[in-house]
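Input record, target 12 of the design panel.
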């Protein structure tokens, strides 16, 4: 069976985000659209995890690709199910980062408004796991100029994993399209499927 990919977006993001859109277009270009899922996640962690658990069952051991808070979700799910995960500027222990930020929120892409509550934070804390027990299943992409998360937290937490640390960049991860061949290779997509494709315009 051809490998499948489950992309997990971050807080207040959506399938319309730049990376999600680029991955979707690239998968369509190489004929793998039916093996990719890019769900619009609920803002509450428990409901988001329920969505993702259902997709894992549907896809059958997908490779997880998680960005920001999606990287935190991906780590929890990878540890729970023994899956491979590629993490892009992942959040580490995000439940410790919301002090002073409870209250109204707005999704950047669909303009949905919602309330960040203490229950959201408690639900995030429930997903905290120790550093990966099988680091070979992980690849972690970090950019040092991430303006939202301090990349050094992820560098320390995932220190046993394959780290790809790039100077500069930003939280959105500049140059993602150019790295899509690395993503497909990590996901186990045969090289002949993607090696002759140029994804820089995705």
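The sequence produced for target 12 reads:
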């Amino acid at each position: 069976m051809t490998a499948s990919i489950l992309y997990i977006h971050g807080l207040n993001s959506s399938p319309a985000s730049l990376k999600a859109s680029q991955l979707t277009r690239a998968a369509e270009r190489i004929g793998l659209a039916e093996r990719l899922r890019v769900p619009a996640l609920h803002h509450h962690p428990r409901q988001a995890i329920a969505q993702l658990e259902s997709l894992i069952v549907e896809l059958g051991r997908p490779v997880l690709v998680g960005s920001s808070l999606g990287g935190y979700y991906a780590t929890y799910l990878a540890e729970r199910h023994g899956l491979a995960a590629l993490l892009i500027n992942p959040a580490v222990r995000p439940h410790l980062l919301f002090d002073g930020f409870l209250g109204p929120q707005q999704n950047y892409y669909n303009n949905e408004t919602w309330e960040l509550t203490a229950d959201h934070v408690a639900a995030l804390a429930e997903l905290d796991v120790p550093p990966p027990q099988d680091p070979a299943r992980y690849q972690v992409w970090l950019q040092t100029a991430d303006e939202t998360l301090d990349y050094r937290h992820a560098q320390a937490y995932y220190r046993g994993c394959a780290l790809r640390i790039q100077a500069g960049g930003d939280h959105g991860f500049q140059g993602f399209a150019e790295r899509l061949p690395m993503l497909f290779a990590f996901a186990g997509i045969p090289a002949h499927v993607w090696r002759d494709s140029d994804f820089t315009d995705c």
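The chain has one domain: 5-95+102-194.
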